[in-house]
Amino acid sequence: ETGVTQTPRHLVMGMTNKKSLKCEQHLGHNAMYWYKQSAKKPLELMFVYNFKEQTENNSVPSRFSPECPNSSHLFLHLHTLQPEDSALYLCASSQDFGTTGNIQYFGAGTRLSVL
Amino acid sequence: AQKITQTQPGMFVQEKEAVTLDCTYDTSDPSYGLFWYKQPSSGEMIFLIYQGSYDQQNATEGRYSLNFQKARKSANLVISASQLGDSAMYFCAMTASGTYKYIFGTGTRLKVLA
User: Fold this and answer.
1) Distance CA B5, CA A102 (A)
2) Contact B32/B15 with Cβ under 8 angstroms?
3) Are the CB atoms for B110 and B90 separated by under 8 Å?
4) Measured between CB atoms, which of B37, B52, B106 is closest to A101?
5) What percent of chain A has pLDDT over 90?
6) What residues in B contact A104, CB-CB < 8 Å?
7) Which of A17, A46, A56, A112 has the fewest other C-beta atoms within 10 Å?
8) How high does pLDDT run on average in chain A?
9) Residues on chain B touching A97 (C-beta within 8 angstroms)
10) How close B67 gets to chain A, by Cα (Å)?
11) A97/B102 Cβ within 8 A
């Protein structure tokens, strides 16, 4: 089983739908991350959780709502999204957060299309 | 503020040849980390190699090596003996002790030719 698993792999939703992205890590890590990857733009960090506590929120619109019930699971709840939110959403985990040498391990991502 | 620059949007290399992917960075922090990731068309970001700012030697991992030139603020990735499976996007990233968040470059798309 891969270290970081994301479901679903693909998602199409309308602007009025509510959906959730799920991420699970099997590496025993304490920190988890959500990133957004849009075409021709660098990866954008959205949220950071360290020991289940949110430590970073990079000015993400409230239509994205993260949830981290434990160190192994991370969710991204989506509602009333806009077409410009269509992107690849990547989850990552690392042993901890707060060192320059912390290596992040990524899942395969959820490719989201908002119609 | 930290910044990563990858100036090569696309590169071609012949199979079995070596290729260098460029990465320059900017930070005023003396303690930082530099990373390279590979992203195949499947989407997953795969960690390749790490270099710490205080490491005296260049990092190596199998066919990957990081050419770290601190004075020039460059951290180029060298892939030796390229394989068809190396065709992918490659991202350079850094962290610094001020924020510890990854800053990514815009990536280089590598195509290995048979």
Assistant:
1) 21
2) no
3) yes
4) B52
5) 76
6) 47, 102
7) A17
8) 92
9) 100
10) 17
11) no
